Structures are given as structure tokens and as C-alpha cells.
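Sorry, can you check?
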Amino acid sequence: MKLLTTFLFALSVASAALASPGAHGPNGEHLDGAVATAEGGTFPRIETFTESFELVGQLSGGELSIMIDRYETNEPVLGGTLEVEYKGLKAPAKFHADLGDYAIDNPALLAALSKPGSHPLLFTLIVGDESDLLEGTLVVNEIHGEEHEHLNAWPWVTGIAIAAAILAAVVFARRRTNRKDI
């Protein structure tokens, strides 16, 4: 019975220690990674503002997702019309009322933006009687130029760690049993 208890304890410690690193969310994002930054964190981002509006966008999950709010009040800008332009390519954004974001999923534009480098973007926003032009640069690092494949090492590392924990538990239990026999 003590052997089983020791084994289960070692298994739970090994599983808890190794289960979370490298975990991925539903869109392939790294759940244990740092929050994206404009300097090239986990996902390429763009941040820009004018006197009236501020815009934050993120390139991930097969789209450029954009949030817009009023600069002075931080009130979300919902239901406007947004278009992005990059090197002669123009694409309208679809507004997602459920998430409050604007999404650009134009394949040609996304292919151009996914290449490593600095991509100057021009956003045209129309909200009611107001309109504004917002300019910013999306910086895509080398790793984002191609969808990166993970070396699926974590299952192997986890398996080896669990096996080592089991072996240690068995050795520990046998030594305790042998000491009691003496």
C-alpha cells in the first residue's frame, strides 16, 4: 500500500511540474509565453493613436484582429467601418459584435503581413459622422514569417520525467522495506 501511495505522489508531482510548459491555446498561442509586444513578443502587434482614437491590432489565428477605442475616454468604438492598406493592398475589416473587434482575413494581405519585417499600415476609420486615418507599423520577427513547428519534445520529456519519478519511488519504497526487515 505504501508503494502505491509513494507512486501516486511521485506521479502527481511529476505531472504538475511538467504539464504546463509549452501549453497551447485554441489558436496555437503559447499559454506560458509572455504577452505580445510591439517589439516582437509572442504575436506581432501594432499600436497607434490619433487625437480621437487609439487602435491595437494583433496578427494571429489567421487574421489581423483590431480593437479601437476613443482616445480620451477609452470607450470602445463599435460598429464602425474600418479599412487597412498596405503597399497597394486594401482590405475591409469585418466587425465582430460578439467580441467588439474588427478582423481582417484577406488572404493576400495576410500573406504579405506574415513575412518578416516592418509593415507600415494605414487604417481608415469611419464612425458615424467622424473619420480618421491611423498609421502604424506591424513588426514581424523571423519566427513569425513562417508558421513555426514545435518539436514535440514535451511528451518525451514528460514521459522520461514520469518514468524517473516512478523508478525513484520504487527504489525508495524498496529501501524502506529492506530497512524494516533488518
